[in-house]
Amino acid sequence: MNPVQEIIGSHRETFQGAASIRVFSCPGRINLIGEHIDYNGGHVLPAAIDKAIYLALSPNKDGVFRFHSTAFSGIVELTKDQLFKRELHHVDWWIYTAGVLRVMFENGWPVDHGFDMSFLSTIPVGSGLSSSAAMCEVCIYALMQELGVAMSKKEMVLLGQRIEYEAAGVKCGTMDQFAVVHGKKDHAVLLDTRDMSYTYVPVDSRRAHWILVNSGVKHSLRESGYNDRRKQCENALSIMHGKGLNGKYLCDFSLSDFERVKQDLPEAERKRAYHAISENIRTIEFNGCMKNNDYASAGRLLYGSHESLRDNFEVSISEIDRMVEWARGISGVYGSRLMGGGFGGCTINMVDVSHTEEFRETMIEKFTEEFSRTPEIYECILEDGVKEEKI
User: Fold this and answer.
1) Average of pLDDT values for 241-261?
2) For the segment 193-207, what is each residue's pLDDT rounded down to a tens digit?
3) Residue tagged active-site, from 38, 116, 176, 252
């Protein structure tokens, strides 16, 4: 069933008598290259994809806020007072929705009634496709449209980042939110996270496809070492400043700058800083390769990104490393790497169009033989960002 029709049906069944229903969607995202550098002032190259969170929204006269998800049983019901008094737990699927509503009241949005909200997701949970950013932004956008609140895309991005901080305790950068808000069909976005300037980069789907292979290990940025690594990057930057280097972010420095001070950095900080600086360089080079249709060189940069994430940022796991190793031996694979925050999730693979079926069959065979289970494989189409759906 079409997800728009499915969520409308689910909403009407859950909230009897619902009227004036509107449906919104926000995609997940892939990141072609540029990992763990959005909070270090680097360049990243994400893209919105054809997997999304759908939200059906209707007003109610009860003055309460009710949430329902097709993935969970029951209805969560909160009053305005309960939104602020009830402690949010990261295991609650609706924490981001509650976080958006809290901010809505704090910012004085013109709310004089409650809302019934139903959710349906086609984004695999824990796969590194930014379902949390999609959840935040679809709620922000839907409430903006419903209440007639004007907000720029940049403000939406920063508000989504704030909600990740406050609701889930994740000190993320802005890449995920930016990608799902600014997504453009058949394009990636080269984003300079220092000032949020960006350019759209055409991605030719007739030449290569982007295929994700899910390790089956669900990651959670809150429960992983994500915040620890961000702190180590901050420590490295502080030490480099103390050695006389000037730069607001780690990615402002060159490799020669790093060489000057690396002996003064503790081992963890040295590794994190080297990854950030070199990953930024790889991302800029990758963009040039794509513009020149040099897919072979672009693929080598993807492998280089994975090696640094594994050895310098230390966020890979054995399952992911094996999957990248297998990809190297499959014909038509330009490159492969860990995608997302790490500690699980997916590999992203750049595969020649004529070899996609071979890639899929070989990965299933090897994965099943080694791990005794069949992997989930997703072929991604690049799509537009958050929007209201026609119903």
Assistant:
1) 97
2) 999 999 999 998 889
3) 176
